[in-house]
Specification:
The protein is mainly α. About 35% of the residues lie in helices and about 0% in strands. It has a domain of about 100 residues. It is built from five helices and two strands.
């Protein structure tokens, strides 16, 4: 439980720092996870966040893409989720830049997560940072916040297993 809290605080810290910075800031490239990184490591402290808010980062969850068709009335990544990303998220997470190393241009890059780990926990929208930050109105930083309907689409898609459909 403590590890999840620490991971959550770390991810929140980096996402908020990355999306709230000035346009002249550069974003570090995400580190490729290796098998040697199975132990938690200390994440670098952002310069604009107090040191007490930094925590341990862990490697992202496995990203085996599911290819099953959606159930009747189910949410489709390509038809329902991707348009939300294209309209509200890709400017900071996939255009010319990928803040916090989070790229939302493709299913695989989304499931790879950010420099802080996974942002989608398939089957568990309550533990998914994608839902938490959008529902709390913390993302997107710029532009219009997501509507309750859009947040529900993301929630339903993740709860159904975050399929690549």
């Amino acid at each position: 439980m403590r590890t999840k809290l620490i991971l959550s605080l770390t991810l929140l810290t980096f996402v908020l720092a990355a999306c709230g910075g000035s346009p002249s800031q550069t974003t570090p490239e995400p580190a490729a996870p290796t098998q040697a990184e199975s132990q938690p490591t200390m994440a670098p402290a952002p310069t604009d966040i107090p040191p007490t808010e930094t925590a341990l980062a862990t490697e992202p969850a496995a990203t085996e893409p599911a290819t099953e068709a959606p159930a009747a009335g189910g949410v489709s990544f390509a038809s329902d989720v991707m348009p939300i990303f294209q309209n509200s998220c890709i400017g900071c997470h996939g255009g010319d830049q990928t803040r916090a190393g989070l790229d939302l241009k493709t299913y695989d890059s989304l499931m790879a997560g950010s420099v802080n780990g996974a942002v989608v926990v398939a089957g568990n929208s309550g533990e998914s940072w994608l839902v938490k930050l959008t529902a709390e109105g913390k993302m997107p930083k710029r532009g219009d916040k997501l509507t309750p309907e859009q947040i529900q689409i993301l929630t339903d898609w993740i709860t159904a297993g975050a399929l690549n459909n």
